[in-house]
Design brief:
Structural class: alpha+beta
Shape: globular
Number of domains: 1
CATH architecture: 3-Layer(aba) Sandwich
Low-confidence stretches: none
Order of helices and strands: EHHEEHHEHEHEHE
Radius of gyration: 17 Å
Mean pLDDT: 94
Bound molecules: coenzyme A
Strand content: 15-25%
CATH class: Alpha Beta
Distance between the termini: 31 Å
Helix content: 40-55%
Length: 214
């Protein structure tokens, strides 16, 4: 691929970012295997970043098309605060009004999530003091393995250094992505099991938390 450019996110990129989030949400594959409403899922995965901290987000573009993104934040505490105060209710209302929460597949996934919550599977240690920043990165399937993820992460790390942020951590359920983050200088901080995709995969999977000091 020629002419790939990494640049700061801008509001016209919002729909492409939401589309890529949908196409990659299941460990790099489309979300439709576990959830049937793109708008609700895209709100859950991207709304904080695109609407409340767009200055910390980057996109990769080739031939006038967005081919990947890195949605970042300098402060995970702020994400939690904004999510619970402003975004959660909006998602809840959207899911109820559109009927998204009542379809069989979606209701099953939500119940599995709640089950994981009660089984303490969603617990994660608080790494905020050492690693206050975070990121989510996704590249369109056909554009992976060509250095684009590396370019996005390098741009974000330079941005964090400019803003004197101490460290960055992230979580991923993609085993393949762990090698990528290790290559980018991240180290494994924590690993836990999650069972809410067991009905699709036939087994529980691990969630890996990686961190990098800056
Ligand atoms: C993970 C992902 C972001 C990596 O981006 P990418 O553009 O494919 O990766 P790059 O081509 O920039 O690779 C950068 C380096 O990591 C290495 N790397 C990338 N993917 C790898 C893999 N699956 N296994 C081993 N090494 C890998 C590359 O070899 C490369 O090293 P090099 O510079 O020495 O050649 C991308 O593949 C992706 O979007 N995957 C699906 C979604 C996902 O898993 N997102 C992460 C969850 S937060």
């Amino acid at each position: 691929m020629t002419g790939v450019a990494v640049r700061k996110y801008a509001p016209p990129d919002r729909e492409s970012v939401r589309q890529i989030a949908w196409l990659t949400a299941f460990m790099g594959e489309s979300a439709d295997v576990f959830f049937g409403d793109k708008e609700v899922l895209a709100d859950f995965l991207t709304l904080y970043f695109t609407d409340y901290e767009p200055q910390s987000c980057f996109v990769a573009q080739a031939d006038n098309r967005i081919i990947g993104y890195l949605l970042g934040s300098t402060d995970t505490r702020r994400i939690q605060k904004v999510f619970f105060l402003k975004i959660a209710t909006r998602i809840l209302l959207k899911g109820l009004v559109s009927g998204a929460f009542f379809s069989r597949n979606n209701a099953r996934f939500i119940l599995l999530l709640i089950k994981s919550l009660f089984a303490q599977e969603l617990y994660a240690p608080d790494f905020h003091a050492e690693f206050p920043a975070t990121l989510h990165i996704n590249i369109r399937k056909e554009c992976r393995g060509q250095g684009i993820g590396g370019m996005l992460v390098s741009s974000f790390l330079a941005y964090l250094q400019e803003h004197k942020v101490r460290g960055v951590c992230l979580s991923t359920m993609s085993e393949k992505a762990t090698s990528f983050f290790e290559k980018m200088g991240f180290r494994l901080l924590y690993r836990a099991n999650r069972s809410y995709f067991k009905n699709i995969l036939g087994h529980a999977i691990s969630v890996y938390t990686y961190g990098k000091r800056l």
